[in-house]
Amino acid sequence: MNPSIPRTALFVLAASAALSARAQDDDAPEPLGLRFRLTGRVQFNLKASFVDAQVPLSGAAGQFADGYVLLGSNTSASTNAGAVTANPGAVTWNWGYQRADQVSGNELTLSRYDQVPRVGNLDGSGGSTAYGGELWAMYELYSFRSFWKRTGHWGVEAGYGFTTFDASASGAASGTATRNQSVYSLGGIVPPSPGYQGGYYGPVPGGPVAPVLDFAPVRSTSVLAAGRNSLDAAVSTDLHSIKFGPWVELPLSDRWTLGLGAGYCTVYGQADLRFTESTTFTGNPGEFAAATQNLSVKASREDWRPGFYARGLVDFALTPSWSVFVGGDIQSNSDLQFSSQGRGARIQLGSVFGAMAGVQFKF
Fold first, then answer.
1. Is the pLDDT of residue 61 over 70?
2. Is residue 348 domain-resident?
3. Which domain range does residue 352 map to?
4. Of 152, 170, 122, whose CA–CA distance to 277 is shortest?
5. Dihedral, CA of residue 246, residue 251, residue 256 and residue 260, to nearest 10
6. What is d(CA 21, CA 50) in angstroms, rounded to the nearest whole number?
7. In degrees, to the nearest 5, what angle opens at C-alpha 97 toward C-alphas 94 and 98?
8. CB 75 within 8 A of CB 69
9. Can you give the pTM of this predicted structure?
């Protein structure tokens, strides 16, 4: 046998194996890789509202803005048609007051203000549209044959985004307020220091003596005055978002691809609430001095708010490594709420829509 024949056969087999391997490589999915996205994003439907967070004063008898005189365990009481009332001449140790100027001689004066005009809840303006950016890192876990034998990809992605927005509101309310005032006899006792708060059960055995007060007032008066309340409020908010979830990329042509993603989103909100509020009265301004207010308040809140996101985009390849894209997304997180001195802010983060555009680089 001609020794060149086996050598020729071996050469042909080796060449065939090489060509076969080349053909298989041509059909194989693209290798896994890492890619980055830099995105500009416009958000819609961000909302802020300002809420009246003042706790209303109880309308029960004996409750005042600067103290209280209520039934105690030592108070003689009778039942009349289901209502518990004190007998004439009863005393109680369930009383308290706040300021030194409420005591004059042998008398204690307690006051409350009802129907005081007050601006209620307001919707903020100016915060519906906000601008920000995002940086994404995406890792391909698997490549697969998709439409028309083109290569699709899926993997996991993580992104950080930043958005800031402001909102403000103002309002005014007018009405007629009532100052209700009652004067109680101290019965010759030396009252405890201002800020004193007695309890229903009185002194604890072995503890200090609890002073008693006449349950019924010596006299009571009501005074009316016209009042006006005005409010200017604003909130500034920085939102830092972190997103993580799976993604898939489906080729539409040699250059165009459709990308989809969804997953967990948490937002770290940093909000500053500022408001100025004034309440003024005419007719009886002296009697309403304690109800007159001029406030200038700043309060802050920082917190994480959980939620989710879903996005879709269309990508156009400029080179094998670089591409540009446009798309949209939806993001929904729980609201951020906080208050200070009777006023509050609510940052509404649910159902926020976004439009995005940017550039992608892949290795």
1. yes
2. yes
3. 30-362
4. 170
5. -20
6. 69
7. 150
8. no
9. 0.78
